[in-house]
Amino acid sequence: MEKNNPEEFKVPFSPLLIGRYKMIKKIGKGSYGSVYKVEDIKDRKTATTPDSPKKYFAVKKMKLPANRLKIQGIDFTTLREINILQEIKHENIIPLVDVFHINRSTFMVMELMKSDLSKLMFSRTITLTIPHIKCIMLQIFYGLKELHKNWIIHRDLTPNNLLISEDGVLKFSDFGLSRFFASNNRPMTQNVVTLHYRAPEILFGANYYGPQIDIFSAGCILGGLLLRGTLFCGRNDIDQMSQIFKIMGTPSEETWEGVTNLPHYVEFEETPPQSFRILFPGIDEDLANLLEGLLVLDPNKRLTVEQCINHPFFNKSPDSCDPDELPMDDIS
Amino acid sequence: EINEALTLDKYLDHVATDLDNQYFPLSVVSPSELAGMSKEDERKCRLYGATLIQQLGILLRLPQDTISVGCSIFHRFYYKKTFMKCDCSIAACAALFIATKVEEQPRKLRDVVITFDYVKKILSGHERPIPVMLYGSSSFTSLNKDAVSAEKYMMKVLGFSLKIDTAYKYLCEYIRILQGTGRLRQKAWN
């Protein structure tokens, strides 16, 4: 192999990455690694005026495994994420600008976003009206539609992973857990999706699941937007399940075919399903209907993305607002 | 039966795959040729690399479509770099290792490296019995390091675009749906 990589040097102590991106500050941290705000200085010298607008990007540095022996070249989940982001170009999916590799860690350059949905959701100063919620949910469904059309399940749909741009456009990010679901019959892991957004079939340990798990997460987000908090906030797997069943009713063979055959199936004290109109007083029938359709326990009875987009809730007045009308001023 | 399998492709129109830049036109002159390598020699190098990948894939119990993705990565790489500058065998090893990750059939780097060493000894006509490389030995460590840096370098050259859709994947799927026999699959493959 040729061994001439003059650009390689230590990171993140150096402010400059591959001679092009200048690090400004750290803006986020997660299980995957950390995110930095960078400035693109490639054209700075050639720019005619010194005041030309600066270009900013976000760089995601993928974390290395703690054990040195466990290093398996470029991380497999990183490759997955790069693969998916390169393939999909959509308004509601975060665009990947550049990828590079320095000293065993991979860096992904992406568009810089203003905020994420969780900040909007949990903010105490912002009022979310029905048009706002319609706008947010529609954007989530458009993104999901594009993913499912390409045979991809996101598998980690939470408000933290839905970024919002300056203009209020919602973008999906963090595809480290996503995978293709078409045409291979290999079992899937149950260790996916943040617990509070996890679908009941995963909690019951199903080895084969489909895009319906994303729909359930979207349902949890819609509930969260109405509640301005987390809809199902369990402390552990069992608690999470009992919280879901408290509202949706306990599953049985009649309501969910094949549930008793799932690997981790446990019986719960029987509770009847509750109406969302009692839980959320003041919401109209269509919204309750949509919420119910998203959170159905049986994955085969859950709505598909198409059905969600064409749901009567979105056709009724008041119409969904434009993305740039979302209340973005108070959050940074 | 084979014809039927091929026309099924039309029904998969909604599957968005980017096939525009998948194959190089025949007129492309490879960099090895530009550097003065004869066509015959280059063919031999490519054949050697592909054989290595195939043998390695069989020993690692990889499905055939993963092996063919590995070969594609290997060939693509040598349309960017010459055989004279980059070692062909370690590139083959790295190509297969990348393919295992892209195709979601992960194998441990340790296994890939040790098997690679074994296959290389077989292909070079090593005296039998062939010694298996010891895990943790100095030659293992250096080969491991080489494989990782080769992988990194390959990724850089290929610009991280590794989405390769081989026809074989679809072929196997169609034959499975049509409940074809092993003979049909063999015939369709070649």
UniProtKB/TrEMBL annotation, chain A:
<dbReference type="GO" id="GO:0005634">
    <property type="term" value="C:nucleus"/>
</dbReference>
<dbReference type="Pfam" id="PF00069">
    <property type="entry name" value="Pkinase"/>
</dbReference>
<keyword id="KW-0723">Serine/threonine-protein kinase</keyword>
<dbReference type="InterPro" id="IPR050108">
    <property type="entry name" value="CDK"/>
</dbReference>
<comment type="subunit">
    <text>May form a complex composed of at least the catalytic subunit CRK2 and a cyclin.</text>
</comment>
<keyword id="KW-0547">Nucleotide-binding</keyword>
<keyword id="KW-0808">Transferase</keyword>
<dbReference type="InterPro" id="IPR017441">
    <property type="entry name" value="Protein_kinase_ATP_BS"/>
</dbReference>
<dbReference type="InterPro" id="IPR008266">
    <property type="entry name" value="Tyr_kinase_AS"/>
</dbReference>
<dbReference type="GO" id="GO:0005524">
    <property type="term" value="F:ATP binding"/>
</dbReference>
<dbReference type="InterPro" id="IPR011009">
    <property type="entry name" value="Kinase-like_dom_sf"/>
</dbReference>
<feature type="binding site">
    <location>
        <position position="60"/>
    </location>
    <ligand>
        <name>ATP</name>
    </ligand>
</feature>
<keyword id="KW-0067">ATP-binding</keyword>
<keyword id="KW-0418">Kinase</keyword>
<dbReference type="GO" id="GO:0004674">
    <property type="term" value="F:protein serine/threonine kinase activity"/>
</dbReference>
<protein>
    <recommendedName>
        <fullName>Cyclin-dependent kinase 2 homolog</fullName>
    </recommendedName>
</protein>
<feature type="domain" description="Protein kinase">
    <location>
        <begin position="21"/>
        <end position="314"/>
    </location>
</feature>
<dbReference type="InterPro" id="IPR000719">
    <property type="entry name" value="Prot_kinase_dom"/>
</dbReference>
